[in-house]
Amino acid sequence: QQSSDDGIESIFNATSLTVGTLGEFENEIIVTSNYTGCLRMYCPSRDNLEVGYLSDDCLLEIVMGHPVIQTSIGKYVSGSPISYLATLHPQCISIYNLHVIPGTTKHGNEAQLQHIQDYRLTKSGACRFLSGPFGLNRYHDCFAVTYLDGSLEFLDQSESVAVSLPELLLPTPLLYVATCDSFVLQTDNAMLECYRYQNLISKKRVSWTISILSDIRISSQINPPSHGLYYLSINPFR
C-alpha cells in the first residue's frame, strides 16, 4: 500500500503495524513503520476517544537510516523481564528499548528509543521474520527470517543457521507452534509441512505433511476445538 506523508510517498504493508507493551511503559503502544525508514509510536488516550487523534498521542517519531521491512515486540534480551522492539532491515535485525519519561515536555511524555544490539543477516533479500522461544528457550526469543528466494535463516544470540528446503523457491507463510516447538509452512507444490525445530535446522525429516488441494472439508462447527490449525484460502471458483 502507499500513502502520502508530508508530501513524500510512503510504502508499507501488513507487517508495518505492531501493537504491544514496550520496556517499563505500562500502556499498550501502536508501532507503525514504512519502507522509507520512518518509525512512529502512538499511545492514544482513552479519555479522548470521542475527540479523535491528538498530537499528544504520538510518543515518538524517528527516521532510521534503512527501510523498515517489519517490526515485532518480544523478549529479545536474555534474562530481561521486559519486552523490546525488533526492526527488520535489509541487512540486519535491530533491537531497541523504549524509555518514557512522563510529563517532561509541555506536550506530555518524552520518549527515547535506545539501541541495544544488531543481528547481522548472512545475505540480502529478507522479506519477513517471526520470533519465538525456538527450541523451548526459556531465556529469550529467537528469530526466523524468510528470504525472497524461499530460504530461511534462524538467529539466536550466539549463532545463526541457514536452511534451504528443495520445495521452497519462493517466500512462504511460516507459523511457529510453541506448544510442540514446531514450524508449519506451505511449500510451492501446495503442501502444508510441519517440522520440529531441531529437525528443521538440521534438515531432517518432516513430522507430517498434508495437501491443501485434497481432502477439503467444510466445517459447520459452532464451537471449534480450543487448539487447532486453521488454513485460510480463497476459493477461485466462487
Give your account of this protein's structure.
- With 238 residues, this protein is an all-beta fold.
- The protein is built from 1 helix and 18 strands.
- The chain has one helix at 197-201, and strands at residues 2-5, 8-11, 17-20, 29-33, 38-42, 58-63, 70-74, 84-88, 92-105, 108-120, 126-132, 142-147, 152-155, 160-163, 174-177, 182-186, 191-196, 208-211.
- The strands form 5 sheets. A 4-stranded antiparallel β-sheet has the order 3-4-5-6, with no helix packed on it. It has a 4-stranded antiparallel β-sheet with strand order 7-8-9-10, with no helix packed on it. The chain has a 4-stranded antiparallel β-sheet with strand order 11-12-13-14, with no helix packed on it.
- The radius of gyration is 20 Å and the shape is elongated.
- The two termini are 26 Å apart.
In short, what is this structure?
Helices cover 2% and strands 44% of the residues. The chain is mostly beta strands and 238 residues long.
Number of helices: 1
Oligomer: single chain
Shape: elongated
Level of helix content?
Answer: under 10%
The counted number of beta strands is 18
What is the straight-line distance between the termini? Answer: 26 Å
- On the 0-100 scale, what is the average pLDDT? 83
Q: Which sheet architecture does the biggest sheet show?
A: 4 strands, antiparallel
- Encode the helix/strand succession as letters: EEEEEEEEEEEEEEEEEHE
User: Low-confidence runs (pLDDT<50, min 5 residues)?
Assistant: none
